[in-house]
Amino acid sequence: MSRFCFKEKCLELGAKTYVMGILNVTPDSFSDGGENLSFKKAVTTALAMEKQGVDIIDIGGQSTRPGHTKVSAEEEWARLKKVLPEILKQVKIPVSVDTFYPEVAERALKLGCHIINDVSGRVDPKMAELVSRYSAGWVIMHNNPIGDSNFELSLHKELLALKEKAVSLGVKSENICLDPGVGFSKTSEQNRLIIRGTEKIKVQNNAYLLGASRKRVIGEAVGEDIPFSERDYGTVAAHTIGAFGGADIIRVHNIKAGIQTAQMVDSLRR
């Protein structure tokens, strides 16, 4: 059975649909910006996520929403370092850090974080060296425009190329998880193709993460005037389709809804 491994821990792919819970310690993330800025609230939220049953907590110190203002590595780390040590001390499940800065990734890995969730769309040799040195997990997201002709096959080939480049830099295949990048450098129709085309797009024997939670593709279907926090039913539908197609991990804001999605998909598929 294929695995996604990080720091002597492994997720057995195919055993279940895993849930990654989103915890943003940012003032401007599109859905939950500002909700977990305080130290106490961030730690409390992380513990609540673990109790509810998430498999991974993904902590972000920088918004990557459309139109976001990029912050420096120093500012991103200033936000993360306030909460990471205590969260790592208190929770027993894997912790992921959402960053594309190698210097932030190194500090997080030194503290004991397990996974780097990298939305840059690049296979940075510095990041590859860190992931290899710490035996960490690396979520590599696709973040480049693709023409509309045979989109699913093109995206599959580009994800495979990202994996192969990482492996050529010394990263073990089992430490790699690929993310097709819903909402990143994609058209509306391409985002829908990703959700319904998981089986065609994913790279076999590597973990595959789908993150459509509350994104524009959901708003376009259910009504863009609907607040982000009320897009969870649409998110459940999208993640159900993706998980049925073979997505191994779903990345969610609403933990209860995400876990029920995974449980129901697994009860039908497995």
3D structure, described in words:
The structure is a single chain. The protein is 43% helix and 17% strand. With 270 residues, the chain is an alpha/beta fold. The protein has a single domain, classed as Alpha-Beta Barrel (TIM Barrel), CATH 3.20.20. The strands form 2 sheets. The protein has an 8-stranded parallel β-barrel, surrounded by 5 helices. A two-stranded antiparallel sheet has the order 1-2. A hairpin with a 2-residue loop joins strand 1 (3-6) and strand 2 (9-12). It is globular. The chain starts with a strand and ends with a helix. The model has no long low-confidence stretch (mean pLDDT 93).
Quickly count the domains.
1
How many helix segments? 11
CATH topology assignment: TIM Barrel
Number-wise, the strands total: 10
Helix content: 40-55%
How is the largest sheet built, in terms of strand order? Answer: 3-4-5-6-7-8-9-10
Would you list the SSEs in sequence order as H and E? EEEHEHHEHEHEHEHHEHHEH
* Ends distance: 15 Å
In CATH's first tier, which class applies?
Alpha Beta
Proportion of strand residues: 15-25%
Report the C-alpha radius of gyration, rounded: 17 Å
Mean pLDDT: 93
Give the biggest beta sheet: 8 strands, parallel, barrel
Shape: globular
CATH superfamily: Dihydropteroate synthase-like
Low-confidence stretches: none
> Structural class, from helix and strand content?
alpha/beta
CATH architecture: Alpha-Beta Barrel
